[in-house]
Design brief:
Largest interface: A-B, 33 and 33 residues
Order of helices and strands of chain A: EEEHEEEEHEHEHEHEHEHEHEHE
Strand content of chain A: 25-35%
Radius of gyration of chain A: 20 Å
CATH class of the largest domain in chain A: Alpha Beta
Number of strands of chain A: 15
CATH topology of the largest domain in chain A: Rossmann fold
Shape of chain A: globular
Oligomer: homodimer
Number of domains of chain A: 2
Largest sheet of chain A: 7 strands, mixed
Number of helices of chain A: 9
CATH superfamily of the largest domain in chain A: NAD(P)-binding Rossmann-like Domain
Amino acid sequence: MAALVNRQILLKSRPVGAPGLGNFELVQRPAPEPGDGEVLMRTRYLSLDPYMRGRMSAAKSYAKPVEVGEPMVGGTVSEIIASRNANFAVGDIVLGFGGWQDYALSGGAGLRKLDPAAAPVTTALGILGMPGMTAYVGLLEIGQPSSGETVAVAAASGAVGSVVGQIAKIKGCRAVGVAGGPEKCRYVVEQLGFDACVDHRADDFVRQLEAACPAGIDVYFENVGGAVQQAVWPLLNDFARIPVCGLIAQYNATTPMAGPDMFSVLRKRLTLRGFIVSDFAAKQADFLRDAGAWVRSGRLKYREDVIDGLENAPAAFLGLLQGKNFGKLLVKVS
Amino acid sequence: MAALVNRQILLKSRPVGAPGLGNFELVQRPAPEPGDGEVLMRTRYLSLDPYMRGRMSAAKSYAKPVEVGEPMVGGTVSEIIASRNANFAVGDIVLGFGGWQDYALSGGAGLRKLDPAAAPVTTALGILGMPGMTAYVGLLEIGQPSSGETVAVAAASGAVGSVVGQIAKIKGCRAVGVAGGPEKCRYVVEQLGFDACVDHRADDFVRQLEAACPAGIDVYFENVGGAVQQAVWPLLNDFARIPVCGLIAQYNATTPMAGPDMFSVLRKRLTLRGFIVSDFAAKQADFLRDAGAWVRSGRLKYREDVIDGLENAPAAFLGLLQGKNFGKLLVKVS
């Protein structure tokens, strides 16, 4: 095979506060050759997700940080273009973790073959992938919503929030979203079927949220923190559950933001529980069965925001941290 | 019956910050007469517990506040001295909720007859009562400790903390207490059998706590908040559970204290859950069976700090908020 040029986007430096384009560097290197048991994958789609902000920092977390000078990590849908692994053939489309680059090697562990006839392959990075499953396990395993309860979720038009609210509706709950701007809010109500969606940029956001939750909030799916958390807190009912999935509004904070008043945890007997999707790997078959059926029947809708070109990934990612995407953010790489 | 004089301790005014003796008032009134279906109880022992601080405030909580001018509420062991209720006879000793006074009426609901031959009647207010059951359900139902894990608890010589650590030991855990002063710490280790107990007044408290928890902390039974919480937080292991039972170090705060950093909740996948013992009323039979057996076999030890005279209840209660008691605080009323 002629030497292929592999464009890689490296972490050039660790951000202090909000990351900028200068924290990334695009380099070109020869694509690697697969060794025995390995496959070479060409990236079709790269998923951009908020958790990647954490990987840019050296702070101790559930996953080790990306090293400075190394390619950014990320989930990918890729095509096998060379195989020395009996389980994969050239032409197979796989879900993997190829990162921000054109080509990646894999030993096969963690790759999942996708059937393009069964569902658009991009769904494996969104509604039928990590974000969808994050919503599913966080809401159902931790949030444990009962019919008639109110479920609130921020970033409601996003890859996770949109699924949280739709599953809440499937379970008979009132779904209240929070999103940035009237266009997203309209989409959340009119297309996704939430009962209400409040624009957190509105001057009277707090009052609007209160009006949207006349019976309080029983489950608050936490993926933003910050001002939305502060607005939600007084509305929480006794015994409310708060799956803590993300804190995107706080990711760029240079000093820790104080958590919510512990008295309300005590007095209202709240349950807060942090999680990451891999804690619930045993639920994957359930998720794929349920979410697959809901997508096929039209009960679970999704929207993708596809950026063209690997070179545009850094800017798209910075926009994601500011809520500029509208739907699951993907980069079409090839 | 000749008119009995009923001394009552009223809430005279709501405290701002730390309560003082001036927030209470002792008055003398004629004891009430039992109506049809009622009993008149003479208080033998009054229980003093941290939750009473909450009842002095008008803030919304899980129980309504004591009204200004009304007697302070509280659990009591009492003797029936007049009965117009077929379920109770004069001379019966009952666990009830008579409050800070010599005499109280009851319609019988919520009264539980005690057998003085089975256990000292004071235990119904402590090790075999509300504080013991608080420890039992909070640790076992929310903390869910596994053998070999480390359980940390503050106020470790107190009515709840002492039971938390001893049950942790029964369950095969490492029990680490925090208490105020070397005498209490010695008692916690030498008499109660905790593996370690750290004096939160020591200059190097944080370092000592760290040394006492070489494998981190898997369950932190939260009943104090404040500086102990701040010292514990960095030691929490991934997937640690935090039953939130009380925040005595913060009860007198005039502004809400910020809660712990939410990033650690997310990154370590912590579970925080507030509770009050009555949320687990269905576990009472299990508690009485297990705790009764452990007390009889000597596996569960307890210590009572008995103050003589109803008139001394306010000062004793103020001391409780400052950690001056040593063991379950009771007032011998008659």
